[in-house]
Amino acid sequence: MSNPTVYHIPVCPFSQRIEILLALKGLERAVDFQVIDITKPRPKWLLDYTGGSTALPVLVDEQDRALKESLVILNYVEERFGETQVARNDPFERGIERLMITREGPFGMAGYFYVMNRNRDEIANKRETLLEHYKWLNDFLLRHNPDGTWLFDEFGLAEVVFTPLMMRFWFLDYYESFHLPDCPEFDRVARWREGCLAHSAAQQVTPEQIVKLYYDYAVGSGNGALPEGRNVSSFTFNPDWSARPMPPKDKYDRIAADSELGLEITI
Fold it and tell me: What does DSSP assign to residue 10?
């Protein structure tokens, strides 16, 4: 093994963080990426590295040592390949950066719980919960860089962490018709979000890809689990997502069949 290897699924937001960080450093080839099919049981050799955990990504270095958790791997990459630094150099600014990053878990969970909801009575509550997180981010950005685009003067580690989650929330745009309200209390975070989504280092996925692959999440089945009545996961590699039709939006009324999603297996 000449480079560290990251075992991942390409559409995973936690893996995309690593790809974005490497792109910012100009070191896309410093880490090898190995795709894992999450529609199948994890291989024993991978579970041996993780201690039985199925969570991805996992990094294995040249000495056959494994690291889990995307933020841990992100910090490893930042520190190991430190010639081009993305995290803030000033200790206080790095503390502000880390404080913002502490919100990534609840922020991501709010978006995923929202898209997986199939109870119409809960829609308003799920939407409001996510908006509360966006409002916190808006206020935080106003406090630390009111007139800029990023948290500081350039796309940094906080943006690396949050951008893949906001890209996954394209599934909310599609399945829930969710949009940030056009009003002053969200103006700052909207500017930040727009800049993050457009950044050249963060173009590993597209809205169409996210919407198609995450259909099963939209009907309540995550991490490669099969929805009721289905035989093929929307996360399958075969057929490729690009050859499938756009999924139906009526997630509260029914679960689309494999044939409607273009999931007939080809040989």
Answer: T
